[in-house]
């Protein structure tokens, strides 16, 4: 009387992810984070890669949030 209506299923084995599979993604995201950090923290004034105030205006609030001075 206490039988389940659903059939019993086997739990699949968990396979570990190799370092070779993670390394390219870690490098990609590391470079991406460095580029974003540059644009938020240093893209202004003499070190500017892009001229004008466009990048500064886009990242202004993030700059203050992360503690970078910009005024």
What's this entry about, in short?
This protein is an all-alpha fold and 71 residues long. The chain has helices spanning 19-41, 54-65. The mean pLDDT is 80.
Rg, alpha carbons: 24 Å
In terms of per-residue confidence, which ranges show pLDDT below 50 for 5 or more consecutive residues?
none
Q: Average pLDDT across residues?
A: 80
Query: Span between N and C termini?
Result: 76 Å
Secondary-structure element sequence? HH
Q: Which structural class matches the secondary elements?
A: mainly alpha
Report the oligomer: single chain
Total count of strands: 0
Name the beta content range. Answer: under 5%
Shape designation: elongated
How large is the count of helical segments? 2
Largest pleated sheet: none
Proportion in helices: 40-55%
Walk me through what this model shows:
The chain has 71 residues and is mainly alpha-helical. Helix content is 49%, strand content 0%. It contains two helices and no strands. The radius of gyration is 24 Å and the shape is elongated. It starts with 18 loop residues before the first helix and ends in a 6-residue tail after the last helix. The mean pLDDT is 80.
Task: Give the SSE map.
Elements (H helix, E strand, L loop, with lengths): L18 H23 L12 H12 L6
Name its key features.
elongated; 2 helices; Cobalt transporter; 49% helix; single chain; mainly alpha; 71 residues; transmembrane helix
